[in-house]
Write a sequence for this structure.
């Protein structure tokens, strides 16, 4: 708040309307951002936040309303105009050329030359180093982007915008891909930027980060402007309620339940990643009926490979995986699903979870298409497949309720609901949920958590893998902390302490 | 989304059939420009094409005969594309199918219908294996099917040319194989046409007689049955579901327990089998033999164009195959009538494909709002 210059309106978006056919994505939305301000745009998936920012960045033309930059009305007809007006955007999915260096990426399209089109990389590198020093964005100008962590790649994106003279930075879901430590670094970077008179608009649905970083917050619901609030004057619960339009409980209600027999037992498991490195390295745990075991850890400590080995998607090198006492290691994914009854909500729903071009009904039978009643012999029964989809869409509240829509047409939250509907309906003994709430808004998160607890109450063994410590603490019965491919400790969720887990996640030991 | 008015905009902006029609019209326009620049009257040229297709029953019959192999190789390419594979090898698979059918048709002594079935089935199996090789080395070693099928095309060509040089199979000195036996032919009334009553019949019945002047055969029926089969397999069966799943997203298919490698091989075998059937029908119905080839005939490559114009569907391939066959046959007439080079036809087909591949451009040209 201390950096805001209330006399200087950097961005004014007035009565912005955007229609796609008959659908109104933005309905008279107003947004004012001052110099030195961090302004959060809060809304559910599909509320119209990204559309509004795409208008500001010139990717869409508004159907109505006007935009003023520094008090001047401007017609932002394309991103080039936006950049000329000092607007920069960092997309959620980075737009970087991986085999290029940091400097090459930053100057791309705006190269420093010695004349006649000959690059002056030396001068460019100095310029990049100067910028990174000025704003506290530590990156090596000569490093290749493909070697950088996600957090560093994001800094390169921010530098790219600053290099083009951005005064107003739009950050689309900036924390979605960051580790907790990197989020801490981003907070500092944002302070540095606003301290030097930059304005920041961040699109997010993470309430904690709004409280942590933003000064003001504009809430959008179903394309409409709900209100703009001073972040310090509202609680997280109030923000959530305004965003969703109803009260949200952050704490999952969970009855005590005594877990049953051991369903899954992993001993000394070793799994190599695609580079041949042992990323799961002597891992042990047991999972019982009727419990949720949370695997807490920072991204890249072997979680992905562990799940892939458990679901047959990757060969394990050594150790054992036992389901109901039977060794199931290195069996095919089909066997894992159908014989050993392992259900899997994958961490990357675009890559693994859905076939985007298939319609909802087809996606809902992805593992069971060959079984009756969905097919008889070789012939699919489309009538039953459609009815099945209609039924699941009702039960799991997947919207819009049209089984013939391609999966890609649904919002992220509804896509996830589809996957959960499918996996839960398959009635597995073991349900593996990997990052089940990644990219979802609070309403959908609440729903996913309730479903996981309901499965546990029905006697399923649930394995929850998440990088979000809040989620692990909230949902799990027991918490196993993974670090460098090993479980470094298992705690009871009731008595677990956030600080302690955080320390273990960083390899700090018990 | 509601659509106001008669839904014309919807047809052209969403429907692939509408887009394809616009692309075809644009192809003709570009062809007209080329003709104008070259100093010919495009209206005259196009009239010549139309006359060359529709003015005589015989011409229409020829168009169907020209279209038959194109429809089937189009189905072959479409099937592979729908399952995520680009089968450039339809050409080689066609050659293998033709060669196998010619051999089975000459060497075997079998009763009438049986002989035909044996020839077609063997040809489909051999060509299916030829396609399956590309599928296997993709599944096993990760070799891209475009690379392997191009290579296999050349191997097929020289294999076929070598077969023609065999003493037992090739008529020495002619560069051709011996003709297949009568029992293996699928021409309609082939023998009867050269008998006394046959000649008499053709002379007295102008319409039917004219049709019979072309090598009429049952190939087109097979092509249409295959188109229906391809549509059923892709859309109505568990196999089609699996193959399409692998084509769209192999990672998700693998996750769901589908054997991705097996699916790739299966798809290439089916695609190859289709192309091989096209080769077989051409031998059994039209050429009755194979000849030493200096270069590839292009039935398989044309199949790629047919598939793309037909939006990679079964019914689409039939329509596009007829369009292509009509242009090929009717287009050959403009040389005689207006003296324009037949290459204009190739330019038109190329342009149509270019426009089909750019639906966005067509919408822009038609002035529809971008979203």
């Amino acid at each position: 708040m201390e950096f805001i210059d209330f006399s200087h309106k950097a961005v004014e978006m007035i009565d912005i309307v955007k229609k796609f056919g008959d659908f109104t994505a933005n309905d008279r939305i107003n947004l004012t951002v001052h110099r030195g301000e961090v302004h959060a745009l809060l809304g559910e998936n599909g509320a119209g936040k990204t559309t509004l920012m795409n208008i500001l960045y010139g990717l869409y033309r508004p159907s109505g309303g006007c935009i003023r930059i520094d008090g001047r009305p401007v017609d932002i007809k394309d991103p080039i105009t936006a950049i000329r007006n000092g607007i920069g955007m960092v997309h959620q999915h980075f737009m970087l050329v991986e085999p290029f260096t940091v400097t090459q990426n930053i100057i791309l399209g705006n190269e420093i030359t010695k004349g006649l089109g000959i690059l002056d990389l030396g001068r460019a590198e100095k310029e990049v180093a100067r910028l990174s020093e000025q704003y506290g964005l530590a990156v090596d100008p000569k490093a290749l982007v493909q070697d950088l962590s996600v957090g560093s790649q994001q800094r390169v994106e921010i530098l790219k915008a600053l290099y083009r003279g951005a005064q107003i930075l739009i950050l689309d879901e900036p924390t979605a891909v960051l580790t907790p430590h990197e989020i801490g670094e981003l907070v500092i970077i944002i302070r540095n930027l606003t301290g030097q008179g930059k304005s920041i608009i961040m699109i997010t649905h993470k309430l904690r980060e709004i409280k942590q970083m933003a000064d003001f917050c504009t809430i959008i619901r179903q394309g409409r402007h709900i209100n703009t609030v001073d972040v310090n004057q509202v609680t997280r619960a109030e923000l959530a309620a305004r965003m969703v339009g109803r009260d949200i409980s952050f704490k999952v209600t969970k009855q005590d339940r005594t877990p049953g027999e051991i369903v899954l037992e992993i001993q000394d498991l070793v799994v190599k990643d695609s580079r041949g490195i042992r990323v799961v390295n002597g891992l042990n745990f047991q999972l019982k009926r009727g419990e949720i075991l949370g695997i807490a850890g920072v991204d890249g400590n072997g979680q992905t490979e562990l799940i892939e080995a458990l679901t047959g998607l990757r060969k394990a090198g050594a150790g054992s995986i036992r389901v109901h006492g039977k060794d199931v290691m290195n069996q095919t994914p089909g066997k894992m699903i159908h014989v050993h009854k392992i259900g899997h909500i994958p961490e990357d729903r675009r890559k693994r979870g859905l076939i985007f071009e298939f319609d909802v009904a087809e996606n809902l039978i992805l593992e069971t298409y060959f079984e009756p009643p969905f097919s008889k012999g070789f012939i699919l029964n489309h009538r039953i497949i459609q009815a099945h989809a209609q039924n699941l869409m009702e039960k799991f509240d997947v919207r819009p309720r049209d089984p013939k829509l391609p999966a890609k047409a649904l919002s992220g939250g509804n896509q996830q609901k589809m996957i959960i509907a499918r996996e839960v309906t398959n009635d597995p003994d073991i349900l593996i949920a990997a990052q089940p709430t990644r990219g979802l808004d609070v309403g959908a998160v609440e729903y996913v958590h309730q479903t996981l607890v309901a499965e546990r109450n029905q006697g399923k063994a649930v394995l929850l893998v998440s990088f979000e410590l809040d989620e692990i603490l909230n949902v799990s019965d027991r918490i196993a902390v993974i670090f460098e491919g090993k479980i470094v400790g298992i705690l009871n969720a009731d008595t677990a302490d956030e600080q302690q887990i955080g320390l273990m996640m960083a390899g700090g030991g018990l | 989304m509601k659509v106001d008015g008669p839904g014309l905009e919807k047809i052209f902006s969403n429907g692939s059939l509408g887009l394809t029609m616009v692309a075809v019209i644009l192809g003709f326009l570009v062809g007209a420009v080329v003709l104008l620049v070259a100093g010919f009257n495009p209206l005259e040229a196009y009239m010549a094409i139309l006359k060359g297709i529709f003015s005589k029953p015989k011409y229409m019959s020829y168009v169907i005969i020209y279209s038959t192999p194109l429809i089937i190789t189009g189905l072959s390419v479409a099937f592979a594309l729908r399952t995520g594979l680009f089968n450039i090898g339809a050409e080689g698979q066609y050659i293998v199918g033709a060669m196998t059918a010619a051999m089975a048709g000459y060497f075997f002594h079998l009763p009438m219908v049986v002989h035909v079935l044996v020839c077609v089935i063997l040809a489909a199996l051999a060509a299916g294996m030829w396609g399956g090789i590309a599928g296997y080395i993709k599944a096993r070693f990760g070799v891209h099917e475009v690379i392997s099928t191009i290579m296999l095309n050349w191997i097929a060509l020289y294999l076929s040319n070598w077969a023609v040089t065999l003493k037992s199979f090739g008529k020495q000195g002619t560069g051709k194989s011996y003709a297949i036996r009568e029992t293996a032919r699928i021409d309609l009334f082939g023998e009867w046409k050269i008998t006394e009553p046959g000649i008499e019949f053709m002379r007295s019945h102008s319409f039917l007689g004219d049709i019979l002047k072309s090598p009429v055969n049952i190939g087109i029926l097979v092509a249409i049955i295959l188109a229906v089969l391809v549509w059923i397999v892709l859309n109505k069966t568990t196999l089609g579901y699996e193959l399409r799943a692998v084509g769209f997203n192999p990672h998700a298919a693998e996750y769901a327990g589908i054997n991705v490698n097996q699916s790739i091989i299966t798809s290439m075998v089916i695609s190859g089998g289709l192309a091989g059937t096209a080769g077989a029908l051409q031998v059994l119905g039209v050429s009755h033999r194979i000849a030493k080839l200096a270069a590839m005939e292009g039935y398989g490559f044309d199949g790629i164009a047919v598939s793309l114009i037909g939006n990679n569907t079964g019914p689409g391939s039939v329509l596009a195959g007829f369009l292509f066959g009509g242009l090929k046959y009717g287009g050959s007439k403009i040389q005689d009538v207006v003296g324009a080079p037949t290459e204009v036809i190739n330019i038109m087909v190329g342009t149509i494909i270019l426009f089909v591949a750019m639906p966005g451009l067509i919408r822009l040209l038609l002035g529809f709002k971008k979203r």
Observations:
- Residues 246 and 253 of chain B are 5 Å apart (CA to CA).
- Chain B is about 75% helix and 0% strand.
- The two ends of chain B are 13 Å apart (CA to CA).
- Confidence is low (pLDDT under 50) at residues 1-14 of chain B.
